[in-house]
Design a protein that fits this description.
The chain has a six-stranded mixed sheet, with helices on both faces. The protein is an alpha/beta fold. Helix content is 33%, strand content 23%. It is globular, with a radius of gyration of 19 Å.
């Protein structure tokens, strides 16, 4: 399923956050939305999803998303927020089952097939033994894994993730990125928001670099976009691109180990 974002602009009062942002997303490709905090990445997601009124258009397989009912959008696009808190004492299983809501045909609740689907998803994310735990008692990393499981249970062709590894330890960060890669390889359209240039270079097929002026600074393969010039532009005096110097912990397959 292809997505085309055209000329998206948005402002909070007099402060322009997004200025004419446009790009396309293709099935089977893992694309990163990269930039520092405060550049409007999360706002762009909210515009794409229709949560904010904006200028520009978002097309999904040639259909304007504003012409679809919320339930129709939810069957096509799933979203993993950067953080989430629940005011109710839902269990982990309840949270994941919510991902099946767009697929339910009536008022009788989830079917056996929905419950079995969610149990498989819980096993996939390593939470098979935690289904009865209360969501609000989990660690930040476990809550994030639950939100990812909910998105997987939603079973959409387009997946938007906003800083999905921000609360996770290194091992779980690698697991999430590998899972997201697998979803893209299965033919899904995947956009991942991140401010970590290493994750972009290690895992992504394409990157969209969003600047502090609300415009796209560059688009293309990570090896050609994540350059010393771009890093210096986004993080003045802070970052550099190098292949020498201090040692670094990287995924085993990136290092050619194992």
């Amino acid at each position: 399923m292809t997505m085309q974002v055209s000329d998206i602009s948005f402002a909070y009062g007099s402060r322009t956050v997004l200025d004419g942002v446009g790009f396309g997303l293709r099935p089977g490709e893992l694309c990163a939305l990269f930039g520092p905090n405060g550049t409007g990445k999360s706002t762009l997601y909210r515009c794409i999803l229709g949560h904010l009124r904006h200028q520009g258009r978002v097309m999904l397989d040639g259909t304007d998303l504003t012409r679809l009912r919320p339930a129709q959008v939810a069957r096509r696009v799933s979203y993993v927020p950067q953080q989430h808190s629940s005011p109710f004492p839902f269990t982990v299983r309840d949270m994941v089952l919510m991902g099946r809501t767009p697929h339910l045909g009536g008022v009788f609740g989830p079917r056996r097939s929905d419950i079995e689907h969610c149990e498989r998803v819980l096993e996939r994310v390593g939470l098979a033994g935690d289904g009865d735990r209360l969501y609000h008692t989990l660690s930040g990393g476990q809550r994030q894994l639950t939100l990812i499981a909910r998105a997987l249970a939603q079973d959409c062709n387009v997946l938007l993730l906003d800083e999905p590894t921000a609360s996770l330890d290194f091992g779980n960060q690698m697991w999430v990125w590998r899972t997201v890669q697998d979803l893209a390889r299965q033919g899904r359209t995947v956009l991942v928001c991140t401010h970590d240039p290493n994750h972009v270079r290690w895992f992504c097929d394409r990157v969209l670099a969003l600047g502090r002026n609300g415009k796209l600074l560059a688009e293309g393969a990570p090896s050609t976009v994540i350059t010393a010039e771009l890093v210096g532009n986004l993080y003045p005096g802070v970052g550099a691109v190098t292949t020498a110097g201090h040692g670094a912990v990287v995924p085993a397959d990136v290092a050619g180990v194992g």
